[in-house]
């Protein structure tokens, strides 16, 4: 798990899907493909009905290629086999593929959130 330091998603938590330590021809710097949470799920209380709980448990994901200089690693980890299958460097080129990747990431993250795993990852950074 990493924290994005620069840009639109600064302060958001993400997980590295694929890393490129040497860079590539079009991106000659070390970078990584990350999948993260743009909008975190809201607090849920016992008195809320199922519909409201479902609405507040929604996660808005993002998928992005980020320079290593703009990432801060944390001590936390996340098992991400299902996310790795959905998100590749090639799937970010085409907008329709990017949307499909985001939907897959959303489904995976929401499932993980509802089971109560990785609680820290789904809480907003307080700073």
Please render the helix and strand layout as text.
Elements: E1 2-4, E2 13-20, E3 31-39, H1 50-56, E4 60-67, E5 71-73, H2 81-86, H3 95-115
Antiparallel strand pairs: 1-2, 1-5, 2-3, 3-4
Structural class, by secondary structure, is alpha+beta
Spell the H/E element sequence.
EEEHEEHH
Number of helical regions:
3
Provide the spatial order of strands within the biggest beta sheet. 4-3-2-1-5
**Share of residues in helices:** 25-40%
Taking all Cα atoms into account, the compactness measure Rg is 15 Å
Shape annotation: globular
Which structural traits does this protein have?
single chain, 127 residues, alpha+beta, five-stranded antiparallel sheet, 3 helices, 5 strands
In short, what is this structure?
The chain contains three helices and five strands; from the N terminus they run βββαββαα. The chain has 127 residues and is α+β, with helices and mostly antiparallel strands.
Describe the structure.
- The protein is of the alpha+beta class and 127 residues long.
- The chain is 27% helix and 24% strand.
- Strands 4-3-2-1-5 form a five-stranded antiparallel sheet, with helices on one face.
- The protein starts with a strand and ends in a 12-residue tail after the last helix.
- 23% of the residues are buried.
